Amino acid sequence: MQATLKSNVVFSGTGLHSGQNVRMTVQPASANFGIWFRRIDVIGKDALVPARWDVVEQTALCTRIVNDAGVTVGTIEHLMAALAGCGIHNALIEIDAEEVPIMDGSAAEFVRGFLRTGIIQQGAPVRAIRVLKPVSVERGDARAELVPDRDMQMEFHIDFEDAAIGQQTKGITLSNGSFVRELSDSRTFCRQADVEEMQANGLALGGNPAENAVVFDGDKVVSPGGLRHLDEPVRHKMLDAVGDLFLAGAPILGRYRGVRAGHSLTNELLRTLFADPDAWCFEDCTPEMAARLPGAGVHFGEIPAVA
What is the pLDDT of residues 62-87, one digit of tens each? Predict the structure, then answer.
């Protein structure tokens, strides 16, 4: 069945790019509501923004959504990944700024808040999106594709010139709490040169290598404490993709493959999928199918201790 939170969960923190202080409340919502944001700092125009693939603004550095009134919410991908990974299908998110707080740079604090508060089932079945035939998009040496599969599967490959990152490849079946155990605590990352360039352009103003990001410089990990996983970068790329794919509006039954893919390419992939009515269909989940979806059976003890 569909699920929502038992009660409100409040998060406070800093916007990664804006540097603004942010307060955000994730609230329960009725069955079939979906995921919506409400900008409570916006007066005099529509402040509701749907968390949906077709309202994503193209941006390389984060996922940002915008409604018809021009109201935006940015850096939503980690929160969306936590909702997907915990199996939360319906929620209203009230936020007093233009950007979701970055927290520790991963999805772990969102997951912890959701599981501590509790998740309840609702009186409507989960509708999943089944991939019926392969679809893919390419941009330069980057590629993303969805192919039919029994469950939600993910494979990702990254390749960076920095020796501390290098080439990394990982595959995962997104069921039985695997998102929470294996991906949720992996933090956003960048190169030292990128930090300097972003901040010179008024971005990453809330970034802090000691608190909310992993920074690499050649063969060195600049951030104190080092890595949580030897392959933390590719795990974080997968975390991002889980969040970006949840903008489909339902869990996806299919295999996602990403090669050097980012936010905009994953969104382009969803647009390509939904543009072809022969490539997908909705499917009401049987109990056996639902038991294999992300978030099914997840519990608080699965959150990595390091997070």
Answer: 899 999 999 999 999 999 999 999 99
Among 176, 27, 16, smallest CA distance to 113 is for 27
Q: What is the pLDDT of residues 10-40, one digit of tens each?
A: 999 988 767 789 999 999 999 999 999 999 9
Domains recognised in the chain with CATH numbers: 3-121 (3.30.230.20), 127-302 (3.30.1700.10)
Phi, psi of 214 (to 5 degrees): -100, 125
Interatomic CA distance for residues 80 and 179, integer angstroms: 12
- Active-site residue, from 17, 89, 229, 263: 263
236 is an annotated ligand-binding site residue: yes
263 is catalytic: yes
pTM of the model: 0.93
78 marked among binding-site residues: yes
Is 240 assigned a ligand-binding role in the annotation?
Answer: yes
